[in-house]
Amino acid sequence: MKIEERVEESEGFDAVQHHRLRMLRCLPLSSKSKAFARNIITVEGNMRQNLRREEYLHELIQGLQEAQGCTPEDKTQLDKWEQEIQRRRRDYWTHTREWHQRESLCPPGPLKRGFDAWRATPNWYLHSDLRDYCAARVGCCGRSCGCCERRGEQATDQTRLAVGHCTVERGCCIRDCGFELTVEEKKEYHKAFGVSMDRPNNIFVERIVTLHILGISINE
């Protein structure tokens, strides 16, 4: 710890995080560290999916309710959306508890210290590289709407764990694209951009994991 303190004092936060990353690569528990990192990012992604979908459903409900001449078919659709919102809330409740369970499995040592330090940073998810990643996926960081910035400001105690960038369920992104992805297309999207344990390790996975967990770019 004393070495880390001296590094941070003399060279700054990024330097001590890189120092912790170098130590992690030398430890025999690296497989447990990788499992923790991938699992925590995956469950956070699931939480964001649920919240963004619920937000979009509320937008759809409000739009239909404000339309004149609500038909029986419209009322049936409203009931379906309300039922989905309830399912999404139950899923979010489950994912929140899964997050705490996953977080408790973080191996003690440089990973734990680095993760805690990074996540204590206000609006950690607005790291410039994570914003570039959001924009590259046609998220709100590629537009001037300010959705991602407001997300941290508007987070509550219940939603703070899921703070982060856009997903394919975000209404703003759906409207910008002009269409909503099918279920199969969403699966392919998550497969392409996810970091779940069943995905082989590569430079993309390492970069995303390091940014989310330690807040540094491995290109630095």
Provide a compact summary of the structure:
The chain is mostly helical and 220 residues long.
Structure, explained:
The chain has 220 residues and is mainly alpha-helical. It has one domain. Helix content is 68%, strand content 0%. The protein has ten helices and no strands. The radius of gyration is 20 Å and the shape is elongated. The two termini are 23 Å apart.
Mean pLDDT rating: 90
Distance between the termini: 23 Å
What's the helix count? 10
Order of SSEs: HHHHHHHHHH
**Radius of gyration in whole Å, from Cα?**
20 Å
How many beta-strand elements? 0
Helicity level, as a percent range? 55-70%
> What multimeric state do the chains show?
single chain
Outline type: elongated
The largest sheet is:
none
Q: Spans with pLDDT under 50 lasting ≥5 residues?
A: none
Structural class: mainly alpha
Number of domains: 1
Indicate the proportion of strand residues. under 5%
